[in-house]
Amino acid sequence: MKIVFLTRRASPQIGGVERHIQKLNEELRVKNYNVKIISEKDIKYPHIKFIGLLYIWFWLFKNRKLILDSDIVHVHDVFIWYLPFKFLYPKKKVFLTIHGLEWRNPFNAFSLLQKRIAVKLFNGSIGVGKFLEKYIGTKFDYIIYGGLEKHSQSTVHRSPNTFLFVGRLEPDTGLGEFLKLLGSSSLVHGTKVDFVGDGSLRKECERFGTVHGFCDPTPFYKKAETVVPSGYLTYLEAKSYSSIQENLAESCEDELNTDMSSSLTGNLAFKMRGGCHGCKIKTFYSTQLKKEYWEEILKLKKYNTWKDISNVYLKLWNE
């Protein structure tokens, strides 16, 4: 069976959607599915408003054989890329995953309307997070939260007073408020901070620690004592290198870390230790969207493997 994924970014680029597609691709290939990933690195379109979109449509039409020869087309967020082809090839099975909202302007009415229309037009849909249904104003066929891999704790060696931030170095990830915390006097002298990511706040981050750029965060997960994730997938990956109890968020309510500024927006800071004794955890929100986003993740009792995630896609495709 031939499947085409359409996505703006793909591995080896680093990010949550990129990793989601990479892991999904690996699981599907094990099950003998033939997956073709088409991303901006294939299309190489000019990043100019409207002109870039016209170029994408032209490239996909020129290479329409990829679509016609596939059994299924699955679009990850970039539904506008495929829109003309939905009408050109109305019988082609096309599915959609919406991974999130635009954090810089999540409530843009036109953007939300586009997503709502796309869900209606496509043959089936997956939403990464139940909260999306509320803000987009639609219902998905399936809700997922990303995959998790368990790792041997024998390979983990924590370094005291080490912080790790993983994600884009941008204000909308909550990084600005984390930097305020680092600039305060509430942290232990000699605290070491690593930043795995890049962005407009790189220079600010370099004042407090080492910026490693977009690279594999695995070695840093293994040694960091405290992780400040920028999103749900970072949180899940960090947990896979820890022995934190699944109900940590609830059982540690009385041990909230009041030393951390309550304005650490949109992030969850947690210590990578076993059990709840001495572990302090606190969630921080800047908007209702961020609040619901983190509350959903923290209430999950079971984290799916990537095999589980691939099975959801197969159910959606009736495979």
UniProtKB/TrEMBL annotation:
It holds the Pfam family Glyco_transf_4. Keywords: Transferase. One of its GO terms (molecular function) is transferase activity. Residues 14-129 form the Glycosyltransferase subfamily 4-like N-terminal domain. SUPFAM superfamilies: UDP-Glycosyltransferase/glycogen phosphorylase. This is Glycosyltransferase, group 1 family protein.
